[in-house]
Amino acid sequence: VDSYVWKACAGTAAKTPAVGSRVYYFPQGHAEQSSSPPDFSAVPCRRPIVLCTVSAVRLLANPDTDEVFAQIALDPRFPPPPPVPVPPDTHDGVGGGGGGVGVVSFAKILTPSDANNGGGFSVPRFCADSIFPGLDFKADPPVQTISVRDVHGTRWEFRHIYRGTPRRHLLTTGWSKFVNCKKLVAGDSIVFMKNEAGELFVGFRRTGRSCGSMGYLPYSSPAGAG
Amino acid sequence: VDSYVWKACAGTAAKTPAVGSRVYYFPQGHAEQSSSPPDFSAVPCRRPIVLCTVSAVRLLANPDTDEVFAQIALDPRFPPPPPVPVPPDTHDGVGGGGGGVGVVSFAKILTPSDANNGGGFSVPRFCADSIFPGLDFKADPPVQTISVRDVHGTRWEFRHIYRGTPRRHLLTTGWSKFVNCKKLVAGDSIVFMKNEAGELFVGFRRTGRSCGSMGYLPYSSPAGAG
DNA sequence: TTGTCGGCCGATCGCCGACAA
DNA sequence: TTGTCGGCGATCGGCCGACAA
């Protein structure tokens, strides 16, 4: 998935460890987060904490809910194996915590009018000015179609119009389809982003808690799968 | 789930073993059916086939897709443990293969007109006569609301009307909601059933193959969970 | 007997400016 | 500047009989 959007959805406080770094694994904490706690009774030589080496980090998103999470593969072997050369990430590497250089983003909490079926999306002035492409203000009304990509890389198109008295920016056609497909409701946050190349991205974060259902990476097959 | 509907969806060729009977378990075959093949390398004393006792059988249905499947718990201990008393099933027991006595059923492959958003469901004459409650043919047009339960026990209501020239039986109001909720398409089969008490049930089978995602029953906790 | 079609009517969707916070 | 509302036109859902296979 796109690391811009992943980080915007996860929030700036969420940080992932760099590949090759050494961390402590707490089985007890892992079990408590799991929806079906595993039975450790048969595992020999259980220890409360395990020193591990991070062998892989993947930024992932649930295909159904768009919930973002990180899959962190740990290698418990000691001494740690020599680091595997990591292919350069497309942006600034998954280990870093900050956003990419030159990326502009804007977040808004969806109002009831934004989330209602009947309406469009009220675009705050700053978002339209600093993120969306400039409109041709000689037209009446000024209008364009903007194309954005979500965390999966899926492309969405919105009609962006500047109309009404007094004038305001709105997203109309395409917006309600996005809201319905993503099952967004009032109170959820939406984030628009523009990278150095001017490409647009969209992400969001839901208000309610979601109980994560992930998978597991076997530590015997490090890094690039397949 | 209701065993009438389960059997109608699974088909008459699908049979489940009786609790207490002894079967052979083939780990290899089990692994091949699984979407993420398990790694047996760490399991000691692997054998190609294992003689087991059936400790529990549950007829289940995927809450999302309505895909039916059986969860069969196996106990590899030898000699087999004394049989656990099984509470009598509501119908004829999950071990049997045949349909219940006095159950009348009728299946139809959905036509494009049946599955289209715009239309209702053309009820074949035999289905209306032998399964649905009798209409009051003095009314013009004869019409009633029928109430059916699906494999989960969820109740669905359909408007059943006898109209048109020439006259024919149709399901109108409520039908398209059912089609949309169940994501039925032309070519899928639908089954209507009536038991001795006159209660109506509905099930269906999809044309396309679905890759099952089930769960596992630990053999250490036989039969009734909780 | 029953599958498909076009007609038609009502419900909903969704775009709009008015207005006020 | 922007959130909400009522208006209203376009679209769609869905019920109907006609007709033919």
TrEMBL record, chains A, B:
It is found in: Nucleus. One of its GO terms (cellular component) is nucleus. Coiled coil: none annotated. GO terms for molecular function: DNA binding. Residues 106-208 form the TF-B3 domain. One of its GO terms (biological process) is regulation of DNA-templated transcription. The keyword Nucleus applies. Its main location: nucleus. Keywords: Auxin signaling pathway, DNA-binding, Nucleus, Transcription, Transcription regulation. It comes from the Eukaryota. Homodimers and heterodimers. Belongs to the ARF family. Auxin response factors (ARFs) are transcriptional factors that bind specifically to the DNA sequence 5'-TGTCTC-3' found in the auxin-responsive promoter elements (AuxREs). This is Auxin response factor. The lineage of its organism: Eukaryota, Viridiplantae, Streptophyta, Embryophyta, Tracheophyta. The chain holds residues 13 to 238 of 551 of the full protein.
